[in-house]
UniProtKB/TrEMBL annotation:
Compositional bias segments (type: Polar residues): 262-271
Full protein name: starch synthase
Pfam family, one: CBM53
Coiled coil: 709-736
Species this protein is from: Coccomyxa subellipsoidea
Length: 1326
């Protein structure tokens, strides 16, 4: 027996209807050879020491049947050839040696092969030359066991032997058995075949000279309800039918939560069982040379077989017997069952002294029993096809009745075969569970159909204690669960709701159901369910969206009403205050009128006249006034003031110097405030101002309360109108943004298709669900180059769809190089997936994109592609903690991926400077836990549309006001990496992707695989991005090793650093993906920091306005037509400091203006630029050594040219932002600068291919170049590019502005990079 064979052992203990037991042990070779099986009868041999009571007729009948069974098997096995017997004994001896090494003793094998102590037929006894109890291989006698097992005693766990074998594999490793010898000469047909049915119709034994087949008889069908197996005493523990546990070491407690769905679906489990059975069938029908005993169930469904073998519902995987909750075939026989056996036992009465039937009688009885069994099987098959017919059991049956005899069971269900659509009661014996025995709470987590279906009442239930007796310390708890109509199996685990879980050692528990639904039918309808679930989800989302919008509208309406009421109240109080002392006519002294109004009571919204007597006040010394005075009017405390020239009044009866003015009373006025002005002289009522009373609307009651109500309605209408106008404006802008994004995304896909066209394309280009698509493939430049035939094999929805196609032989090209094949796209397909080969199947040449396969999107599907869950672990994020481009990438990439339907979250340290951020005002506590020797708080809020989590340890590691710059940065960030992983584990999150960034979070990759992947955080794969390889190369090398895919921020930079030993060793999973910019943040058409918005059509006017504002702000002269050159950068050696200085001198020398925004972390460098500013600063140059976000926006918009002369640049965002604002870039051709800026004179072909997917720019009439580039590192190289840019500005202004408009239209967003990253995520998951 091979060492592999030890792992493949199966053990089944079968207890017959009267209590006899036999253990059947099978061994399946790892190469799929025949199953070999040994059978040891565990009852006492006839004449043994077991006491027999005369009244026990069952025991006598059992022994009679058992004797016949042993005799028949012995007769056949005694005829095996010596070669076969020798090989068998060699393997069995090795097995005994292995078992002895771990303290297990296996019984010896007798001469006849397997049945020790069996009575031999006469011919066999004559042939036997050795004692019965002798080892065939040695001929030495073997001592019998000290104690014989009574057929009525409870048996040990039926899985003890396989458990021992499993452990033995680490010790003795027996050699592989040799191949079977040639088959012995066949016997005559009449001697070869035989069949024996022991009395009672409980079993059938038949065979020939090589094969013995043991089958359950029809009686089993009648008493199948009693075919139960005891559940484990705790997860993974096996027990005997008497409830005596055979302890195994308890499994370690899982770190988090419940176990997920079992590793294999029920369909896979049944398939494994079918495969095992088929292998045995093959051994039997293929003329097995070795003696083989096959144990078979009747011809029943696989569900029935599993039900009998699993008993109380524990999930059973035939491929993993050592981890199942029940022994494979323990059959409990009780007194009731014995009575049934007597009733259906073939007519034998209960008299043990009655002679046995004759052979003819026995044959007749067998035939009758077989006919009865066949009839019942046919009836049950019809019932199964018609659906469940079982009457629902009364699940409220008193617990005391149901738990009788099950005191040592862990759990059982009632009814034993629950019915779909009915209730099922689950009983749990708390005192038997080592895991939950001392816990304060007991719950069950239950779902159906391999954890895919949830019950209508949910999936979490509390168990309630029953009133069942506590015999043998039992403590029974119960819950009643409603089974869905379309369920075929029930999956469940027991838990305390706080992390302690009894889940059958990770295998979970399973009970098969009486249902019309089957695993196969459930799988066939999977896509229908997905479509229905998708529709339901969309309907629910639409309803939720509508409800949220309604709630938002109601909340806004309430807010507006509240604001209007408050403003009306404030106005009422103000009016009441200002109306104090208001009159319609003022007399300064008796008979001397200073002013009055016509009409006497002013009416809001009506015309009125005010007459003023200049001779009755401070202006009297000049009366009569030689020229008209003016009046300054306002209302309600000088609101909406205006100045009006007065006219000479006529028809006034009063004496004096009268002047008049007509005006419209303000609609909401309650008092008119005014003073009279004559040049520098005023009449202001001695500093108190005049107050003319306005009558409140008499139609509304004329009171202040009525005034307040009227003003409330008026203010409320105005607020609603203003809100609507703002919403309409936002909708207009958002609609335009969406249109622009849609066009840009469509173009990105079109460019990608054009770039693939020389190898692969489709007609139509956009594949539509429910329609045909023709795939064209050119094997040139692929692994299939030169192959005459090409075959297409594929599927849908990233291979998850049940439908597949191919292999299809593609049509050879009549013209050109492309083979073709047409397939019909399912309506519920959202992607088409395929590989190509030169053979239909089997060995050949395959083009599968290096193991990644081809995937093309499908439009119009009934299903939305399931989104990925991506978690970024980073120490920077724009705009809340941005230091360099890393922060921009985390935010913009996350937003772009999220817009494509995926879930994106970001984990960051919680720095102290966050406390001053206005963007983090809505932060809330998410979780807290103890880890790493400290307490950790995790808070959360949404930043730029992304859900962010902030790690705040009590040890103060991040109680700082900067991201970098401390001596302990490496240690702090390493702590953060592990704390982020601990947070995911503690909160039960299982993202698909962990995306780590740069050296600061490189350690998260190794920490995940070393400390978290095997301990609960099992799902994620790791993607790592290098933003700058100049820092932390050793950490970068570690992350490259531990990540599934790693990237850098541009293809050229990937080429430049790819030879580094830390990277080169893992180059197969390394690639460059260029960065993009967030076009919503950097948007000149909606930039509030600019003096006026502009786009490509208004670039000249927009940049002129920005230029004027910048010059005014920085004190630059506006005289002359001067080009403006800008630099926005950190002042480090990487950025080409000597070239920046050279650009400043050269720009001024050629009559331009120069602006620099940036600062140097190195004081020496800063001192150099301070000196440069002192030398060049003035009306044509300005140096701003600070970080100023608003000034950076203004510089990008105002400058005609932006210079980026970096020595190396992984990607660079400056040139991308500059082009977004219409500023022409002048760059050194390195890293990402080369991948994004294409020289107007040198790169027309490269630009056409990269930006438009065109292989011939002249043929297609394309010029999409966008800047000026140089390659050297000296001033002369820079002059080559800068001078050409300045010449274009001076010599051909129209062309230069045309270039500015062209680069504004180019898409430098994350549209294309996001698609590349999503594909990279899927690659990492493979």
């Amino acid at each position: 027996m091979s060492s592999h064979g030890l792992r493949d052992l199966r053990s089944v203990r079968c207890r017959g209807r009267r209590g006899a037991s036999c253990r059947v042990t099978t061994k399946t070779s790892p190469l799929g050879r025949r199953a070999k099986l040994s059978c040891k009868v565990l009852s006492s041999a006839p004449g043994g020491s077991s006491e027999v009571h005369p009244e026990d007729d069952e025991l006598a009948k059992l022994r009679s049947e058992n004797a016949e069974l042993r005799s028949a098997v012995a007769r056949v096995l005694s005829q095996l050839s010596p070669e076969v017997q020798g090989r068998f004994n060699e393997q069995y001896s090795s097995l005994r040696t292995s078992a002895a090494a771990i303290g297990e003793e296996l019984p010896a094998i007798s001469l006849v092969g397997v049945l020790e102590g069996a009575p031999l037929p006469e011919e066999a006894q004559e042939e036997a030359a050795e004692p019965v109890n002798a080892d065939i291989s040695t001929g030495s006698p073997v001592e019998a066991p000290d104690e014989e097992i009574s057929p009525l005693e409870p048996l040990d766990s039926a899985t003890e032997l396989p458990a021992a074998f499993e452990a033995a594999t680490a010790g003795a490793q027996p050699e592989e058995a040799s191949e079977p010898a040639e088959e012995a000469a066949p016997v005559a047909e009449e001697e070869k075949g035989w069949k024996l049915t022991p009395e009672g119709d409980a079993a059938v034994l038949q065979g020939d000279d090589d094969t013995v087949t043991f089958s359950f008889g029809s009686l089993v069908d009648k008493i199948k309800r009693n075919l139960t197996a005891s559940a484990s005493a705790f997860s993974g523990r096996k027990t005997s039918n008497a409830g005596l546990a055979a302890p195994l070491p308890p499994a370690p407690m899982p770190k988090a939560g419940l176990s997920g769905p079992s590793k294999g679906s029920s369909g896979q489990r049944r398939q494994a069982m079918s495969d095992e059975r088929a292998e045995s069938e093959g051994a039997r029908s293929g003329g097995a040379k070795a003696g083989t005993v096959l144990v078979e169930h009747p011809d029943r469904s696989e569900e029935d077989i599993i039900a009998r073998d699993t008993g109380a519902g524990a999930e059973t995987d035939p491929l993993q017997p050592s981890t199942q909750a029940t022994a494979g075939g323990d059959i409990e026989v009780d007194e009731e069952m014995a009575k049934e056996v007597s009733q259906y036992g073939g007519g034998q009465d209960n008299d043990p002294l009655q002679p046995p039937h004759s052979a003819a009688d026995t044959a007749a009885g067998l035939e009758a029993a077989a006919a009865s069994g066949r009839k019942e099987l046919a009836q049950e098959k019809e019932q199964a096809e018609a659906g469940p017919s079982s009457s629902p059991a009364d699940v409220l049956t008193p617990a005391a009745e149901l738990v009788k005899g099950k005191e040592h069971w862990l759990y059982f269900v009632y009814p034993e075969r629950p019915v779909a659509g009915a209730d099922v009661a689950v009983y749990f014996n708390n005192n038997v569970s080592d895991i939950l025995r001392e816990r304060p709470r007991r719950q069950i987590h239950v779902k159906f159909n391999n954890w895919e279906l949830e019950g209508e009442n949910g999936c979490w239930f509390d168990l309630e204690q029953t009133d069942a007796p506590h015999d043998f310390g039992a403590d029974w708890w119960r819950v009643v669960v409603k089974v869905p109509e379309d369920a075929f199996e029930m999956n469940y685990v027991f838990t305390d709701g706080e992390g302690a879980t009894d889940d059958n050692q990770g295998q979970n528990y399973l009970t098969l159901l009486d249902s019309a639904m089957t695993a196969e039918l459930w799988a066939e309808r999977a896509m229908e369910r997905l479509v229905a679930a998708e529709k339901k989800r969309k309907d629910e989302e639409a309803a939720a969206r509508e409800a949220a919008e309604k709630e938002q509208r109601e909340r806004e309406e309430t807010d507006d009403r509240t604001a209007a009421k408050q403003r009306a109240l404030d106005l009422r109080d103000s009016v009441a205050y200002h109306r104090q002392g208001a009159v319609t006519r003022l007399e300064r002294s008796p008979g001397q009128v200073a002013w009055y109004t016509v009409p006497e009571g002013l009416v809001p919204g009506k015309k009125a006249k005010l007459l003023y007597n200049a001779s009755a006040g401070p202006l009297a010394f000049m009366a009569p006034l030689p020229s008209p005075p003016s009046i300054v009017l306002g209302h309600n405390g000088w609101l909406d003031t205006q100045e009006i020239i007065m006219d000479r009044a006529t028809g006034v009866c009063e004496e004096g110097d009268w002047w008049a003015v007509e005006f419209d009373v303000f609609p909401d006025a309650a008092v008119i405030n005014f003073v009279v002005k004559y040049y520098e002289h005023f009449d202001n009522n001695e500093g108190q101002d005049f107050k003319a009373l306005v009558e409140l609307d008499s139609a509304l009651g004329g009171s202040l309360d009525d005034f307040q109500e009227r003003k409330f309605e008026e203010i409320y209408r105005n607020l609603r109108q203003q809100r609507k106008e703002l919403e309409d404006e936002w909708m207009r802008k958002e609609s335009k943004r969406t249109e622009i994004r849609t066009v840009a995304k469509a173009k990105a896909m079109a460019v990608l298709r054009r770039q693939m066209k020389h190898v692969l394309f489709t007609e139509p280009a956009e594949i539509q669900a429910g329609k045909d698509v023709t795939i064209y493939y050119s094997p040139q430049d692929t692994p299939l180059a030169g192959c005459e035939d090409v075959y297409l094999s594929g599927g849908w929805n990233r291979w998850t769809h049940l439908k597949k196609f191919g292999p299809l032989k593609m049509t050879a090209p009549g013209e050109g190089e492309h083979f073709s094949a047409t397939v019909t796209v399912p309506k519920n397909a959202h992607s088409i997936d395929f590989v190509l080969s030169n053979v239909p199947e089997g060995e050949g040449i395959y083009d599968n994109r290096g193991g990644l396969d081809y995937h093309l999107p499908v439009e119009g599907s009934e299903l939305t592609p399931p989104g990925l869950h991506v978690v970024h672990i980073a120490v920077e994020m724009a705009p809340i903690c941005k230091v360099g481009g890393l922060g921009d990438v985390v935010t913009a990439l996350g937003r772009a991926v999220q817009e494509l339907g995926h879930q994106v979250e970001v984990i960051l340290p919680r720095y102290d400077f966050f406390l001053q951020s206005p963007l983090l005002g809505a932060t809330q506590l998410e979780a807290e836990f103890d880890w790493g020797g400290t307490h950790i708080w995790v808070s959360t809020c949404v930043v730029q549309g992304l859900r962010c989590f902030f790690i705040e340890p009590a040890n103060g590691f991040f109680a700082v006001n900067s991201v970098y710059g401390r001596s302990d940065d490496a240690m702090r960030f390493e702590f953060f990496n592990k704390a982020a992983l601990e947070f995911l584990l503690q909160t039960g999150r299982q993202p698909d992707i962990l995306h780590c960034h740069d050296w600061s979070t490189a350690g998260a990759a190794q920490a995940y695989w070393d400390s978290y992947h095997l301990y609960g955080l099992w799902r994620p794969k790791v993607v790592f991005t290098i933003h700058n390889a100049e820092y932390g190369l050793d950490r970068i090398g570690s992350a490259a090793y531990y990540s599934q895919r790693f990237t850098t921020v541009s293809p050229t930079y990937a080429f430049e650093i790819g030879g580094n030993p830390a990277i080169a060793a893992h180059s197969a999973k390394f690639m460059g993906i260029r960065n993009g910019i967030d076009v919503d943040i950097w948007d000149p058409e909606n930039d509030e920091l600019l003096p006026r918005p502009y786009n490509a059509e208004s670039v000249v006017e927009g940049k002129a306005a920005a230029r004027e504002t910048l010059r005014y702000r920085l004190g630059l002269t506006g005289w002359g037509d001067k080009p403006l050159v800008g630099v926005v950068t950190r002042l480090t050696e990487q950025k080409g400091l000597h070239l920046i200085k050279h650009a400043a001198w050269r720009t001024l020398e050629r009559g331009g203006q120069f602006v620099l925004l940036g600062s140097a972390p190195d004081p020496k460098i800063q001192a150099q630029f301070n000196a440069l500013a002192a030398s060049l600063g003035g009306e044509n140059a300005h140096f701003a050594f600070s970080y100023d976000e608003s000034l950076s926006h203004l510089i990008y918009a105002a400058c005609d040219i932006i210079a980026v002369p970096s020595m190396f640049e992984p990607c660079g965002l400056t040139q991308l932002i500059a082009m977004r604002y219409g500023s022409v870039p002048v760059v050194r051709s390195t890293g990402g600068l080369r991948d994004t800026v294409f020289d107007v004179d040198l790169d027309k072909a490269r630009a056409a291919w990269e930006l438009e997917g065109s292989s011939d720019w002249e043929r297609d009439g394309l010029d999409v170049t966008n800047g000026f580039a140089f390659e050297g590192t000296d001033g002369g190289a820079l002059d080559y590019a800068l001078n050409r840019a300045l010449d274009a500005y001076y010599n051909d202004r129209a062309w230069f502005y045309g270039l500015a408009a062209r680069i504004m239209r180019q898409d430098w967003s994350w549209n294309r990079p996001a698609l590349d990253y999503i594909e990279l995520y899927y690659q990492a998951m493979k």
